[in-house]
Structure prediction request, 807 residues.
Amino acid sequence: MIQTDPSDVEQFKQSFREEAREILTELESALLELNERGGDSELVSRIFRGLHTLKGSGSMFGFERMAAFTHDLETAFDMVRKGRLEISSELIDLTLAALDQISAMLGAEVGGASGDAAACDGILESVRRLAAIEEIEAPAGENEPTSNGAASPDGPVKNWRIRFAPGPDLMRFGANPLLLLRELRTLGDLSIQASLAAVPALAELDPERCYVSWEMVLTTAADRDSIRDVFIFVEDTCELVIEQDEAPTAEPGWEAERVAAGLEEKRSSSPGRRACDKPDNVSSLRVPAARLDQFVNLAGELVTVQARLSAVSGRLEDAELAAVSEEIERLTSALREGSMSMRMIPIRGTFEKFRRLVHDLARDLGKAVELKIEGADTELDKTVIEQLSDPLMHLIRNSMDHGIEQAAERVAHGKSPTASIRLCARYTGASVLISVSDDGCGINAEAVRVRAVERGLIAADAELSEAEIQALIFQAGFSTAREVTDVSGRGVGMDVVRQRAESLRGTVEVSSTPGRGTVVTMRLPLTLAIIDGLLVGVGDACFVLPLGQTLECVELTRADIARANGKHLANVRGELVPYIRLREQFNLDSHTPEIEQIMLVQASEGRIGIVVDRVLGSCQTVIRSLSRIYRQVQFLSGATILGDGSVALILDPERLIQDAVRRVAYVARGQPRAADGGKRIQAAHQSPIS
Amino acid sequence: MGNRIAFILLESSEKSAVGIVLSLTNDATLVNFDGAMDVASTAELKTALLDACKAGKAILVSLDKITDLDVTGFQLLWAAKREAKEAGLGFELTGALPEPIGRSLLSVGLDVQAFLA
Prediction:
């Protein structure tokens, strides 16, 4: 046996864990799809193969308990595949529950829960009970799964031309091609020819690599999937061609030449070829996320240093230095974009895992609900995607519990008894819109209003538009549910959605039509690491405004201020636009210039101006998180280091405006200002960057 | 057989429980292999076969004490045979390969007689 280093073993185990989790996700999707679509043989085969891989690989990497647990599930799906067991929602539910236990077992190896032994026993007992119904009809021993699934294949006998060329690392992974071929032989009559043509000169030969390839003709009643299952553990690391030979099966004997010719012809065309000759398999790498984060951070550091170089170059006015600086700027920009794109991952994985949630909730609530997914290939920064699960879960739970009616009620309102929840992602500029919509009963504005008054969120006589009333559901502690349920109704879910969206520098909106349904939309930035901003100055202080939210810049003169009678309103081409003075917001004491600049930003309240002394130009900046002391200042989304080494605070216009509105309201009511409103940035001795 | 110079390349090491003894005679280089000729031992066997080829004499590989022969061992012997032929040296398998091993290889298209004899 090959002796392996313990660290290699751990690496293999970790690799297996990651792959196993992917298989679990695929299995879950396939099971839920099978639940919706019924007897789809391709789906059943996929599930069987997934379970078979989990069992086999698990055993190979020392996850014996997991492998043993998976065995009976594999048996059950082998029986389904062979038509000896009917697929049922009970089997699907049991398998889904089993996947949860397998997931826990995988986690146990790294200190997580090891799965619930009693639950595992219960699941296995139920699976065996289901399978035993068929065991009565089937001869003893037939239910033992075989990796080929064709110990007694039925159906027409066919000739299959097979080419098998092991990949370079097959032997190192402990696989033995000879054992695979012997297993293949059990499927039927096998004519086989080995080729040693690829064996190199003795000095160049890698003794741990298999250079031999095989051309075969298999005469069997087994189908293509059954043949492929023999190679299930190695198919990603080898060349495997399985082609049905149309020639009559009556031709006995060795047909190596014809096989070889046929396979050679097939090799020149891509369909049916696997692994080694599939570009996808060799053009992607699995890289630990931490290493990628480190790379992105380093690229971010480089952006900062490059900004300093540009500043120095501008100051020295040296043409040669300026040329080098520009070249470095170009390369840094390309490197930054490249590193960012590496962290962009499709949202599919996050969306797909909600199929299970919808399935389980629908069962628990006794509702028929179909989950539709759109735009699953939309890519977002991995850090954004990682934080989306919670808010999406709350939105779906809320829709399932409050939005979607029982089937009878839906039918009474002329709707389909099966409700639908739609998860959708799409790009819009530098943002992504992620929406959760349902075709349920919609939000009862009057109930929301009454509840908001009860909770003291609004005054009893407050005049609010429909949209403003609907937006109240995002307030902390708000819930119209009179009883706290297991699913939702604690009044924390929607608040979490708003907070999470805002922490991601995004916004959340709700739109609802009574009787027709509700749409909750989150607008999120593509990435959190870097921001395209507009650098502005007030006195000696510099601030960054997100470019995406900035509309235009107009001048504000002393005369304009006088014309507005001191009110914070500017006349922009005939439209009165309210503005906030950053000088006042931050209590900056510096001299006010004759002409100030109003940066118009688009906020949910409409167009609002932010008044600064001067506009310094656009910049791409790496966002640094704020130190603890500044995190309570909600209208700051971070800070960045400028080329001259000074710090600029990155403003969150939406929060800034909300803060200003709140302060105006407090002042109007004669209450003290919000705690974070008057913070003097210059008075702080600590660096704002953590 | 004349003067024999024998040296042990590897014998029952911790890594693999195999022994390879290379013996030089006036006419031939003898490779005596004891154990499983598989992926765990082929690195040592390759070194032995390369040394045997460099000796410039006919190569005799004894199969008497082989307990297993996998595809890596098989292709190594085939490469050595090809190397020897190209160098104009003889290559011969001596002793009897245990019958189950030969039958097992034959079942997957690796015919010892056809490829290696």
About this structure: The two ends of chain A are 51 Å apart (CA to CA). The interface with chain B takes residues 1-3, 171-172, 176-178, 181-182, 185, 192-194, 196, 199-203, 205, 207-212, 214 of chain A (CB under 8 Å). Chain A has a mean pLDDT of 78.
